[in-house]
Write a structure and sequence with these properties.
Structural class: alpha/beta
Strand order of the largest sheet: 2-3-1-4-5-6
CATH superfamily: Pyruvate-ferredoxin oxidoreductase, PFOR, domain III
Strand content: 15-25%
Number of domains: 1
CATH architecture: 3-Layer(aba) Sandwich
Number of helices: 8
Number of strands: 6
């Protein structure tokens, strides 16, 4: 694997921080240097959450500058659009097609933007539907991790093991199914 800069974004409670830790665990166990930096924002209230994940032979800083991300992994499509300026020109976005209404939309002060998917360059995954197929909507992050694993051509067994080692024992079967569905979706 070459040096890789990934921005993981979503809404508080979607599992973006867990996803960054799983990716970091995989990278470390694969012999790479990895740096993570979490920016929580108003995560407790369903606000925007972003995590920088930098992987390579030697990583000095955890921060990814605007215009420098190789990939954005987005757990909600408006969040994908919000952070698209972090992509380098040849970068891509892997995003969940899920829509979570921000507070201004909920209160009627704004409308959820239309045509987001047409503005994003990358692959959309119906992570919420696939998570429900796996047994629980909370497994959408595992769906997205399965899709990420395939998109990046990572070692599937090792990546899945990093995920399963990071979650509660009682959720392993459901998250394994979700990971497999995400892997097949890309």
């Amino acid at each position: 694997m070459k040096s890789l800069d990934i921005l993981i974004v979503g809404v508080g409670g979607q599992g973006t921080l867990l996803a960054s830790r799983v990716l970091g665990k995989y990278a470390l166990e694969s012999g790479y240097d990895v740096k993570l930096s979490e920016v929580h924002g108003m995560a407790q209230r369903g606000g925007s959450v972003m995590t920088y994940v930098r992987i390579g032979e030697k990583i000095a800083s955890p921060i990814i500058d605007e215009g420098r991300a190789d990939l954005i992994l987005a757990f909600e499509k408006l969040e994908a659009l919000r952070y698209a300026h972090y992509l380098k020109p040849e970068g891509e976005i892997l995003y969940s097609t899920q829509e979570i209404m921000p507070m201004p939309v909920v209160t009627g002060a704004a409308e959820y933007p239309k045509g987001i998917e047409e503005q994003l360059r990358g692959d959309g995954v119906d992570a919420l539907d696939l998570a429900l197929q796996a047994g629980n909507s909370k497994a959408a992050n595992s769906v997205m991790l399965g899709a990420l694993c395939k998109k990046l051509g990572l070692d599937r067994e090792k990546f899945e093991a990093a995920l399963l080692a990071s979650i509660p024992q009682k959720t392993i079967d459901m998250n394994r199914r979700a990971f497999e569905l995400g892997y097949a979706a890309v």
